[in-house]
Amino acid sequence: MQELKLHEQFEIEVLDYLNSTRLLNNFVFGGGTMLRLCYELNRYSVDLDFYFTEQSRENAEGIFAKIINEFEKKYVITDNQEKFHTFLLEIRHNNYPNRLKIEINKDRVYKNYKPMIAFSKHADHQVMVKTIPIAEMMENKIRTFLDRKEIRDVFDIEFLYRRGINLPADSKKLRQLQIGIQQLTSTDFKVKLGSIVSPEFREYYNNSKFEFLEKVLEQQLSSIK
């Protein structure tokens, strides 16, 4: 857990640095780390995921070049790629044990966003960020899980539902989600999820799995039929 706490400090530091260089304003913050730092998601998340605002998308390549230029002043850049859908940057710093990956989605632009404060009890700084509205995160997380089948996305879906965000009224998508959850293995729970949650949550999910969310899915699918 100590490494994850330090990594969270790293994430806050990078957000603060992007803000100080006036680059953060070009982006809308999303993903699990946004939920962690802005909504107190009860698991750790190790990447920073961004989307361009409508205005900044027109100069995407130029903005990414500026980020590289600024980060070279403070961090060691270990990876720097322009992929088909994203810009990818990976950095390290001697103060932190692990590298930090930053991904900027080139395809999807967010016109609407919600200002939030990103904070961590493990860090001294707080940073104002533009975020994907939490209601939209449910669709994002379901889509992401169906694409990559990572248990952390199901964890986030359950978290969002417990926060009052409804599941979509799409029986096909809900059925795919249900099947995907049923296909998760003990390794997914004990290793993949267990490594990013605190001991009490680790024990709960090892024993109960996603029983709560599965019941919700069953009820909603029954009501749609």
What is the level-2 CATH architecture name of the largest domain? Roll
Structural class: alpha+beta
Total tally of structural domains: 2
Percent helix: 40-55%
Order of helices and strands: HEHEHEEEEEHHHHHH
Q: Which percent range describes the beta-strand content?
A: 15-25%
Shape: globular
CATH topology of the largest domain: Nuclear Transport Factor 2, Chain: A
Characterize the main sheet: 5 strands, mixed
Mean pLDDT: 95
Question: Assembly type of the shown chains?
Answer: single chain
Within the largest sheet, what's the order of strands? 1-2-5-4-3
Annotated CATH homologous superfamily of the largest domain? JHP933, nucleotidyltransferase-like core domain
Gyration radius (Cα, Å) is 18 Å
| Total helical elements | 9
CATH classification class of the largest domain: Alpha Beta
Low-pLDDT parts are: none
Explained architecture:
The chain is α+β, with helices and mostly antiparallel strands and 225 residues long. The protein folds into two domains: 131 residues, Roll (Nuclear Transport Factor 2, Chain: A); 88 residues, no CATH class. The protein contains nine helices and seven strands, in the order αβαβαβββββαααααα. Strands 1-2-5-4-3 form a five-stranded mixed sheet. A two-stranded antiparallel sheet has the order 6-7. Helix 4 packs antiparallel against helix 5. The mean pLDDT is 95.
